[in-house]
Amino acid sequence: MLHLIYILAFTVLAIIAVANLIRNLIMFSFDRERTYTTRPQGGNYGYTARKQFVPHPELLDSSGNLIKEPLLVMRSINVEDARQQLDAIFEASPGHKSDVQEEK
Questions:
Q1: Is residue 93 a contact partner of residue 87, using CB atoms and an 8 Å limit?
Q2: Total-model pTM
Q3: Which of helix, strand or coil describes residue 17?
Q4: With CB atoms 3.0 to 4.6 Å apart as the test, which of 4, 29, 35, 66 could cross-link to 51 if both were Cys?
Q5: What's the pLDDT at 22?
Q6: What is the C-alpha separation between 33 and 4, in angstroms, rounded?
Q7: Residue 75 forms beta bridges with which residues?
Q8: What's the CA gap between 87 and 93, in Å, rounded?
Q9: Which residues are CB-contacts of 23 (< 8 A; sequence separation ≥ 6)?
């Protein structure tokens, strides 16, 4: 009998979780297309302001202009080049001790 109660409880929790997931996906899709209104300047609240698209702050450069270039650029290198670059970074690190210092 106790097994049936556990199965029923976890089934209810799973249904609630899936319903919440679906509701959140729908709300995020609506929120992505939402435009935000700006308040009118000077205290004249008698008219409605026009809707304006507000981009995410990470998509703006330091002067506030929209970035048109890709945010992540990856280039492929071979294993030997990557190993050499990692060795150079390791040898240039402040905690690195050379072989000569370790022998003394």
A1: no
A2: 0.34
A3: helix
A4: 35
A5: 95
A6: 44
A7: none
A8: 10
A9: none
